[in-house]
Every structure is written in structure tokens, then in C-alpha cells.
Amino acid sequence: MGRKIVHAKVQGTVQRVMFRQTVIRAMIKRDIVGGATNLRENRDQVEMTLDGDENVINEFLATLQATKPLNDWGAQVNKLTIMSTGREVNAHQVTTSNVDNRDWNPNVKFYI
């Protein structure tokens, strides 16, 4: 399969639990370019954009839904929705290119 771009929204325990850092670092490990943004109006939702190999992205999205929790802060996805449109990767709050420029709490263990 080839390259694809996916816009998705996840719902669950995804804000204030290091979800964005967890998911972005997991994307980097899989050579996916991507971004994630907390939705202020819905505190249990995060929007994501993923750009990479179609098989790798499909496997990654399945892992996001199956792994509970995603880190030792309790982040977990209860629902994942594929959207027809979304933000460009660099329009997200946290991306695979800026994740190391943020002041994250270092005391988090990633499970994905």
C-alpha cells in the first residue's frame, strides 16, 4: 500500500494525561508524520492528523483503540472517528516536529 493522510478524532481519557506526547512519540517510532490538538470545547477529545504508510497508520490506529491504558497516566481512547477533512499537520498544537520543544512532565511511561 502507499502513503495516506488520515484525519481522526479520538474520545476518551485524552486530556491532562499526556495523551498528545504519548501519541506523537508513538508516531515518531513508526515513521508517521503527524500532529494532535486538544479540543477546548470537548475536554474528552483530541483531533489528530497522520501522514505515512497506509498499513502502518491502520495498524497504529488499531493499537490506539486496543491498548488500555496508553501510558501510566491513564490515557486511553474509547472511540476513534475518521474525519473527511482536518488540520494540516503543522497546524496542530503538538507535532512530530515540535514535540521536543515543549516542556513535558518527564515522569510518564509510554505503553505504545
From TrEMBL:
Annotated Pfam families: Acylphosphatase
Domain Acylphosphatase-like: 5-112
Signal peptide: none
Reaction catalysis annotation: an acyl phosphate + H2O = a carboxylate + phosphate + H(+)
Primary enzyme class: hydrolase
Gene Ontology MF terms in the entry: acylphosphatase activity
UniProt keywords, alphabetically: Hydrolase
Gene3D superfamilies (UniProt xref): 3.30.70.100
EC number: 3.6.1.7
Residues at the catalytic site: R20, N38
Keyword Hydrolase among record annotations: yes
Family label: Belongs to the acylphosphatase family.
Protein name: acylphosphatase
Organism: Thraustotheca clavata
Lineage: Eukaryota, Sar, Stramenopiles, Oomycota, Saprolegniomycetes
